[in-house]
């Protein structure tokens, strides 16, 4: 046997190859005890009762004792229960005599395959129930489930649930099996099992509630709206039964906005709805420049006009872009460039 | 304790597995039906009784003997608290095989076989794994009609195998082959029932013997 000369770099153990750190149960228990002791110490330090010290109090205390200006919340010092910090891991799968606990242990992906097994069993149950109903000549029940408001769990969520890695094929097969179970007419029996893998999708189109018309002392209907553009903030009050007079910060628009373009911007919502001479407007605006103030007032007046107008016309306004907030702001200048986009002159030599 | 383990070995059929099945049961479950003549494997010729209208018929007398030996062997393994793994790659009977294994208290693998499950077990599972002590193949081919990888891996890891071999299978590396049909539902249900009964019988006998020993 010859000694093969190796360098220290090769002899160093490849720590990364052994996978993520495995935490033993004893380690986690010790961490939980330390956490509880630390919680009581913290409560004493802050002068509060150790028995009724909740997680929110801990967060506040830590934020007070260790102030940090870091942007990333997860980089700041935190004190949480060890179960939230250490990721859930699988414990040893076999007993003292070596026999594994789960009957599908030798497949490698025991939770996933046992899930498939159970789901398939539910499918067989449903088919048997259907046959029974058919034998008794009863018509199969037809109850529709709300398909629009729910979605299946994503692959990552399923992996978290099963604590196992899945492949894309495995995931798609599982979803297909669930869909098959759901589409059967008597699939409602296994509702509970399917519900575990459904998630509610919050309604994306939230109806924007616009306020109803208000009436002032003279009996004239009016409504308010607010708008912003770049750094300008505007708030407009649109009155009904008017002559088309528009006042900005107490000054008439002819004097406040000498440029035609800005006045056009103000009148655009009224022109779009063919109500040019029918409304009066009083608005206040601050900040920004000439054009930004005009855009802000435009948005504010369009929002105020929503209350005067039918829903169809509101939809038309939205499609015309009158109700959309304009997010464009001045882009910052970057180092190594002359402006936001302009680079320095390139010289070949 | 030594007597507990050596006593069953002195009898040829300690667990009386012969009474669990008869020739008529095998015939009714269509165990004798093989594949067509073109699918015949060369090494299955000794087990074939004959060929009728191009379909091979398996010799049920030989099947009886092989089945008795195999069931006796599984009963002994179960008596000595060994781990038994059921393998079948037939999609029709996957659920049946898994339920059988679960009811026996043993293990099953009816899914896609990952490469190093036996040969690379310490890395795939963990460092203290115990591999199965017996593997029962309820269908020894995989979905591409090739011999299942587990037959070769079990032979590599010195794990004895019991397997139902059909006329298109290779019975070479299986220690206790059982020539018989692996495609009919009735045949598969019969095999599952027989294996389940032997394993449960053997485990009960073991528990009884332990209780007798403790009482003394």
Largest sheet composition of chain A: 6 strands, mixed
Alpha-carbon Rg of chain B, integer: 18 Å
CATH hierarchy class name of chain B: Alpha Beta
> Main sheet of chain B, how many strands, which sense, barrel?
5 strands, parallel
* Strand residues, percent of chain B: 15-25%
Assembly status:
heterodimer
Classify the helix fraction of chain B into a percent range.
Answer: 25-40%
Q: Total domains of chain B, how many?
A: 1
Which whole number gives the mean pLDDT of chain A? 86
Tell me what you see in this structure:
The complex is a heterodimer of chains A (349) and B (216). With 349 residues, chain A is an alpha+beta fold. Chain A is extended and about 95 Å long. In chain A, strands 3-4-5-8-6-7 form a six-stranded mixed sheet. In chain A, α10 (260-272) packs parallel to α11. The longest helix of chain A has 26 residues, at 110-135. Helix content of chain A is 40%, strand content 11%. Chain B has a single domain (28-114, 126-215), classed as Rossmann fold, CATH 3.40.50. Helices cover 39% and strands 17% of the residues of chain B. Chain B has helices spanning 2-6, 23-28, 60-79, 94-104, 121-124, 149-156, 185-215, and strands at 33-36, 48-52, 55-58, 84-88, 107-109, 134-139, 161-165, 176-179. In chain B, the strands form two sheets. Chain B has a five-stranded parallel sheet with strand order 5-4-6-7-8, sandwiched between helices. A three-stranded antiparallel sheet of chain B has the order 1-3-2. In chain B, β6 (134-139), α6 (149-156) and β7 form a beta-alpha-beta unit. The interface between A and B is medium-sized, with 19 and 23 residues.
């Amino acid at each position: 046997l010859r000694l093969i000369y190796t360098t220290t770099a090769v002899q160093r153990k490849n720590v990364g190859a052994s996978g993520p750190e495995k935490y033993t149960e004893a380690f986690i228990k010790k961490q939980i005890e330390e956490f509880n002791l630390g919680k009581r110490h913290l409560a004493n330090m802050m002068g509060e009762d150790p028995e009724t010290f909740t997680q929110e109090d801990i967060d506040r205390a830590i934020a007070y004792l260790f102030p940090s200006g870091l942007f990333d919340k997860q980089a700041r010092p935190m004190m949480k229960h060890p179960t939230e910090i250490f990721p859930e891991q699988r414990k040893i799968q076999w007993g003292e005599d070596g026999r594994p606990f789960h009957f599908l242990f030798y497949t490698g992906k025991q939770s996933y395959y046992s899930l498939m097994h159970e789901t398939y069993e539910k499918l067989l149950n449903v088919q048997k129930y259907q046959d029974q109903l058919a034998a008794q000549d009863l018509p199969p029940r037809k109850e529709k489930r709300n398909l629009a408001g729910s979605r299946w769990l994503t692959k990552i969520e399923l992996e978290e649930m099963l604590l196992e890695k899945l492949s894309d094929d495995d995931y798609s097969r599982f979803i297909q099996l669930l869909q098959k179970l759901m589409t059967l007419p008597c699939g409602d029996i296994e509702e509970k099992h399917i519900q575990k893998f459904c998630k509610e999708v919050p309604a994306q189109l939230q109806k924007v509630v616009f306020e109803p018309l208000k009436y002032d002392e003279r009996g004239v209907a009016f409504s308010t709206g607010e708008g912003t553009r770049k750094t300008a903030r505007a708030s407009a009050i649109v009155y009904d039964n008017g002559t088309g007079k528009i006042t900005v910060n107490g000054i008439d628009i002819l004097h406040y906005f000498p440029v035609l373009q800005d006045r056009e911007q103000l009148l655009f919502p009224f022109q779009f709805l063919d109500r040019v001479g029918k409304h009066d407007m009083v608005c206040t605006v601050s900040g920004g420049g000439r054009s930004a103030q005009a855009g802000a007032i435009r948005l504010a007046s369009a929002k105020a006009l929503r209350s005067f107008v039918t829903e169809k016309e509101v939809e038309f306004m939205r499609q015309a872009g009158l109700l959309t907030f304009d997010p464009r702001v001045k882009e910052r200048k970057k180092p190594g460039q002359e402006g936001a986009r302009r680079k320095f002159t390139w010289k070949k030599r | 304790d030594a007597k507990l383990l050596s006593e069953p070995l002195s009898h040829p059929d300690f667990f009386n597995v012969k009474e669990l099945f008869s020739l008529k049961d095998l015939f009714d479950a269509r165990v004798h039906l093989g594949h067509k003549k073109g699918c015949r494997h060369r090494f299955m010729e000794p087990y074939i009784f004959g060929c009728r209208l191009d379909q091979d018929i398996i010799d049920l007398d030989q099947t009886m003997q092989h089945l008795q030996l195999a069931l006796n062997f599984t009963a002994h393994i179960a008596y000595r608290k060994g781990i038994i793994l059921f393998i079948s790659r037939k999609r029709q009977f996957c659920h049946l095989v898994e339920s059988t294994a679960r009811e026996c208290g043993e293990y099953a693998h009816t899914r896609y076989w990952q490469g190093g499950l036996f040969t690379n077990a310490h890395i795939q599972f963990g460092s203290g794994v115990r591999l199965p002590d017996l593997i029962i193949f309820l269908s020894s081919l995989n979905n591409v009609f090739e011999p299942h990888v587990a037959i070769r891996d079990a032979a590599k890891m010195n794990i004895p195998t019991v397997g139902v071999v059909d006329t298109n299978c290779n019975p070479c590396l299986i220690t206790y082959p059982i020539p018989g049909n692996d495609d009919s539902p009735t045949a598969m249900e019969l095999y599952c029932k027989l294996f389940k009964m032997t394993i449960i019988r053997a485990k009960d006998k073991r528990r009884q013997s332990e209780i007798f020993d403790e009482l003394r």
